[in-house]
Amino acid sequence: MSLFIREAKILDPQSPHHNKIVNVLIQDGVIVSIDKQEHSADTVIEAKGQLLLPGLFDMKANFNDPGNEHKEDIRSGCQLATESGFTGIATLPNTAPVVQAKSHIEYIKSKSRDCLTDLYPMAAVTIDTKGEDLTEMLDLHEAGAVAFTDGNEPLWHTDILLKSLIYVQKIDGLIINLPEDKLLTRFGTMNEGIVSTGLGLKGMPALAEHLMIKRDLDILEYSGGRLHFSNISSAESVKLIKKGKKKGLNITCDVSIHHLMHTDESVIGYDSNFKINPPLREEKDRKALIKGLKEGIIDVIVSAHTPQDEESKKLEFDRAENGILSLQTMIPSLLSLKEELEYNEWIDKVTVNPRAILKIETASINEKQKANLTLINPKKKWKYDSSSNRSKSVNSPYYGKELIGQVSATINGTKQYLA
Questions:
Q1: What SS3 state is found at 372?
Q2: Secondary structure (3-state) at 238
Q3: Beta strand pairing status for 415-418 and 402-412?
Q4: How far is CA 10 from the centre of its chain?
Q5: How far apart are CA 85 and CA 328, in angstroms?
Q6: Which of 73, 206, 295, 379 is an S-S bond match for 69, by CB 3.0 to 4.6 Å?
Q7: Domains of the chain, first to last
């Protein structure tokens, strides 16, 4: 099998062909030439005006399988990821049952074997993600878990965090924590501030995030190990992580695409599709997150893909579940930030960095390398509706709207998706 991509602009800071318009020939899943020459092939893609990136990788996605397959399952999630340009996804353990045993890891791997998108299960740090008792993390690592996290739940127990950081040092393992003091956010539904006061909704103070980050940094300095902060959302969090990195602590962090796009003012219409955790913060926080990406303080941008059914979202705002459907809108969202984030300021955050943090082989656009690629048409307009949606759920504020930027092809070795 051969594939010829004509006149694509390569965007890959790791490649000597970065920012060049070239032709790419792929033979049996391997890039055999990158040049200006014409080549014959079984399939030809006319890519003039399009962008060729290393395959996208998402470090935070909920696929709800097993337990809530009516919202999303591994099959639908994989197809959705493939058509959204992702060649790799790290899945959260917040399923039913929680991913905390070897058989749970094998279940995910077996159901995704035929998918173009590679799934990398993350396993729970604590049993049932309750934060009280450690799982058998070394066994889970042997079974294929790429990191350890309680996912949508914070590691609230100080001693548990300390012990887990020490425990996984034997395998140079990664602990991922959602920084949130749940006693401070209890019963909260959105960011605490002027907007929440005006709407009459109980707020979730950014302080709950800051306190947890301070605590975690102190524990990490004491214990050693590798720690990743998931879904940071405020200006103060960026400052704290910057200080921690300057001290030489082995820390990384990510931000969701939602917190780069929106603020708490989006909640003014009580649209429950904007109800997420951590909540959307103020404009000063959004700008600080953008700056954090530019300065390299924030390492990764995640989709935080969280499918919810209508029964979970079509409720009063304070009763609705958290989460936004976001894999399919990731590329249009990133492209819409072009006035604030140049291509070079986000490409590695969704391709190289998440793989490197998880110690997965990185993708690059070079000859003799496995073809792990995403081709994007940055000017393609499309409507996000029932005919184009690839998820089982519809909880997106973009549903029914026209978006700009679409994936033309996703290639992972010999597996190919062509739009």
A1: strand
A2: helix
A3: antiparallel
A4: 22
A5: 8
A6: 73
A7: 2-52+366-418 (2.30.40.10), 55-357 (3.20.20.140)
Structure tokens at 351: 């391709």
Provide the 10 A C-beta neighbour count for residue 177.
26
**What is the full per-residue pLDDT of the chain (419 aa) written as tens digits?**
899 999 999 999 999 999 999 999 999 999 999 999 999 999 999 999 999 999 999 999 999 999 999 999 999 999 999 999 999 999 999 999 999 999 999 999 999 999 999 999 999 999 999 999 999 999 999 999 999 999 999 999 999 999 999 999 999 999 999 999 999 999 999 999 999 999 999 999 999 999 999 999 999 999 999 999 999 999 999 999 999 999 999 999 999 999 999 999 999 999 999 999 999 999 999 999 999 999 999 999 999 999 999 999 999 999 999 999 999 999 999 999 999 999 999 999 999 999 999 999 999 999 999 999 999 999 999 999 999 999 999 999 999 999 999 999 999 999 999 99
C-alpha separations of 301 from 259, 314, 323, 364, 386 in Å: 10, 28, 16, 18, 27
Q: How far is CA 103 from its chain centroid?
A: 25
Please name which of 313, 197, 310 lies closest in space to residue 264, comparing C-alpha atoms. 197
Is the pTM for the entire model greater than 0.90? yes
Confidence (pLDDT) at 1: 87
**70 vs 73, 89, 232, CA distance in Å?**
7, 20, 29
* R_g over Cα of the chain: 21
3-state SS class at 138: helix
The set of residues, in sequence order, having a beta carbon less than 8 Å from that of 400 and lying 6+ positions away, is: 383, 384, 385
> Are 117 and 108 a contacting pair, CB within 8 Å?
no
Return the closest-CA partner of residue 9 out of 53, 51, 38, 44: 51
Measured distance CA(148)–CA(26) in Å, rounded: 36
Record the tokens describing residue 68, joined without a space: 């809530």
From the list 55, 6, 12, 13, the residue with the least C-alpha distance to 35 is: 6
Per the CB < 8 A criterion, the answer to whether 191 and 130 are in contact is no
Q: What share of the chain is helix, strand, coil (3-state, %, to 5)?
A: 30, 25, 45
Say how far apart CA 278 and CA 191 lie, in whole Å.
8
3-state per-residue secondary structure call for 262-277: CCHHHHHHCCHHHCCC
* Residue 183 CB coordination number (10 Å): 9
